[in-house]
């Protein structure tokens, strides 16, 4: 009797241990330092992770536990956010001031979070002191688990493309502009994976493409500017956005606003040679452009100097966004608390109107993404990249009652 009970208990303990060991762990140690980088051809002080700019990409799969020990070797407090990752009941790992204290210079902090209920392309970036303008960002992908079907064939390759506007001024200078009430003004260039494509034609290729399909994960990691992304002679088929599979439409170019990511499939079915990828600023008087080269593995001719044109006007952007849809019948790791397949049938009980605003707090220039009742102070941020909607729903009024002055 006793022996049988013990055996069952041991078996149960083993089972629970197996259950706990099910979700794999990924461990990283990151050393955050200053370093000299020359993305626009002129040396400037950048923020490196393990000596890299942009930082290393994290390749994870849903349910993975991610443990990142971050050593802050800057002379300023530092924090990293995992942009787009849902920290369920775990908001203190989100890396934004207000949910976390910054990592003091010369110390380390270990982030610990699980990627769950979402798949796709994301990025991480610093949230303190306009650090994002100096680097410290990188790609973060969340793959579907092998047993979950993905609604397209495995691509030949899978590349992360981080595009963003870039300033030649240091992050401390940019921060002092905002702190004294000045705006950031115009950026000095646009980067694709830390490069601007100066010296056309002589560039080493950013990526190589085998004949067949290649997946690109495009994120705008910049500070203020919306960018248009396009590839010479190659339409892009959108397959994933904001954590789920998308209805697969083809686009000649994509407007990528700050903080957004898209996953697209590109078929290498053209003459085997080099082609330009292009990222250019939108809604600006003077258009800034970055180019990079992609090379077919089975051929080697120069890219045509003629770059594909960018769309014009904000209406184009709005209309494009209206064509994006999740494919809710494709399987994905999305949360389904009240039947995501039945969104159209859920009755609307409350509508909350959000408004973007710029305002001054004392001498500081601040950006917010909604308006607040005067009794609730808005979560002020010193940089536009850290603006977030408020977290306490009780403090949100249905429409913006008091636009900040
Ligand atoms: C981080 O990098 C700095 C500069 O290269 C070096 O002095 C330091 O020892 C490194 N720290 C860790 C924990 O690797
Ligand atoms: C990312 O992880 C997936 C799943 O483990 C693996 O199949 C793939 O080869 C990895 N990709 C890279 C670039 O490491
Ligand atoms: C700092 O790093 C050490 C060495 O890896 C580790 O033992 C310690 O737990 C880390 N501290 C924090 C707060 O993450
Ligand atoms: C959604 O995904 C499913 C499963 O792959 C596919 O059969 C269906 O055609 C897709 N629907 C649309 C509108 O793309
Ligand atoms: C929505 O409202 C209608 C009409 O009041 C009601 O019949 C229906 O059951 C409601 N649906 C849900 C999901 O609550």
From TrEMBL:
Source organism, top-level taxon: Eukaryota
Position of the signal peptide: 1-21
Disordered as annotated region, ranges: 369-405
Keyword Hydrolase: no
CDD domains: CuRO_2_AAO_like_1
Entry keywords, A to Z: Signal
Composition skew (Low complexity), residue ranges: 382-405
Record-annotated Plastocyanin-like domain positions: 31-145, 157-298
A Pfam family per the record: Cu-oxidase
Gene3D superfamilies: Cupredoxins - blue copper proteins
Keyword Cytoplasm (UniProt): no
GO molecular function: copper ion binding; oxidoreductase activity
InterPro entries, sorted: Cu-oxidase-like_N, Cu-oxidase_2nd, Cu-oxidase_fam, Cupredoxin, CuRO_2_AO-like
Similarity comment: family membership: Belongs to the multicopper oxidase family.
Entries under PANTHER family matching the protein: MULTI-COPPER OXIDASE, OS01G0816700 PROTEIN
Protein name, entry field: L-ascorbate oxidase
Species assigned in the record: Trapa natans
